[in-house]
Amino acid sequence: MLLGAAALGLGGCDSDSVGLGLFNRRQAPPAALGEAQQRRDPALSGDGRLLASIVESNGRSTVLLQEQPSGRVLPLRHLRGHRPHSSPALSWNGRYLALLLQQGTQTIAAIEDRLSGQLLRLPPPPGARIEQLSLAPDGQTLALQLVQGGQQRVQLFDLSTLLEPDRAAGMRSSNPLP
Amino acid sequence: MRARRWSPGLLLSALLPAMVSGCMGTMPVPLNGLNRQLEQAGGHRNPSLGERWLAVIEQRGGREQVQLVDLQLQRPVPLPGLNRADALPISVSVDARGERLALVRQLEGRSEVVLYRRALQSLQPIAMSPGAIATAVNLRADGRQLAVQVSRDGLWQIDLVALP
Fold first, then answer.
1. pLDDT tens digits, residue range A110-154?
2. Does residue B6 form part of some domain?
3. Hey, how many other C-beta atoms are within 10 angstroms of the C-beta on B127?
4. Residues near B163 by Cβ (< 8 Å), separated by ≥ 6?
């Protein structure tokens, strides 16, 4: 019975029985109508307006940035030639999109500023591989998951000298995106 | 006078800014104090940043558990009731205020999604649809929506769950 209710909820119907863990849910909008795609690595902007994810396109992993709930795909300036992509992260209003991308034979971290069009690149240190990243909602701190010598570790970086804060509405210190 | 010893991790964090290139000007600054603490505490994976919080899966003594670090005070905070000895954390995500954590974990051979509220020390299961196996979570910074990566019928898909 409960499982049936959860399945109904997936289709967009509401099942808000909080104590049972049944919440209002839906699938992320598709990138193209009628197309069943592999999608992974979801990342929501803090204001809930944007969803970034990785889709398989022509056999290559590509970041997809969509408005919610319409599913409208938003363009990204710098990233087309640097696939495969992985591990996207969005700042509060979606001004910054951080992700891992391919540069030559290396996987590097990069942050696209959707307001200014600039791209910040962070290559891995010698002997280390970047596996995953996280961007703080205000865009002021970056965490990298690295593998070196067979061990996973997390390293933190202060971006406040590089990026303007992208804060929640009412606390905003940069221009809103169109 | 003895030369200062650099561990690989600290050397790595010192070198990385010097290697940064791109269209933007200066370099990111490694948070050396925190990086040193993290390195000394063991291996870590699956970082998730709030505005002054880092949620991470810590690997220590053959066990993995979720840890929440206050970046201002530079120390972990207790998460009573979240970590279980018989559960394997797979993916964790924290909201901006460090109040809510979403977790995918494996328990008794099954994956489950739970929402932890720190102020209440409460743990709430988030039911997945039949046949969906959760493998990763991303909690919106305001804590009001959850994106769950699931495997369903051989396809990776993303479910969006509104949270009260």
1. 999 999 999 999 988 778 999 999 999 999 999 999 999 889 999
2. no
3. 22
4. A23, B100, B115, B143, B144, B145, B146
Which of B43, B49, B161 comes nearest A152 by C-beta?
B43
- Residue B145 belongs to domain spanning: 43-162
User: Which neighbouring-strand residues pair with A120?
Assistant: A111, B22
| Distance from C-alpha of A71 to C-alpha of B17, rounded to nearest angstrom | 37
Alpha-carbon gap: B3 to the closest alpha carbon of chain A (Å):
22
Ramachandran class of B109: left when φ > 0, alpha when ψ lies in -120 to 50, beta otherwise: left
**Tokens in use for A142?**
């970056």
Q: Does B109 map to a domain?
A: yes
Mark yes or no for CB contact A26/B160 under 8 Å.
Answer: yes
CATH of the domain at B101: 2.120.10.30
Burial class (CB in 10 A: 0-12, 13-18, 19+), A150: exposed
Number of domains in chain B: 1
For residue A86, the 8-state DSSP code is E
Tokens of A144: 């990298």
The ipTM is: 0.86
At A33-72, the pLDDT tens digits run 455 689 999 999 999 999 999 998 778 899 999 999 999 9
pTM of the model: 0.85
- Residue B105 covered by a domain: yes
Provide the number of CB pairs (under 8 Å) joining chain A to chain B.
219
Pairing of strands B29-30, B75-77: unpaired
Delineate the domains of chain A, giving CATH numbers in brackets.
Answer: 1-30 (no CATH), 32-158 (2.120.10.30)
Classify burial at B129, counting beta carbons within 10 Å of its beta carbon; exposed 0-12, middle 13-18, buried 19 or more. middle
* Contact (Cβ atoms closer than 8 angstroms) between residue A157 and residue B29: yes
Which residue, chain included where needed, has tokens 């600290």? B10
Retrieve residue B37's tokens. 């603490």
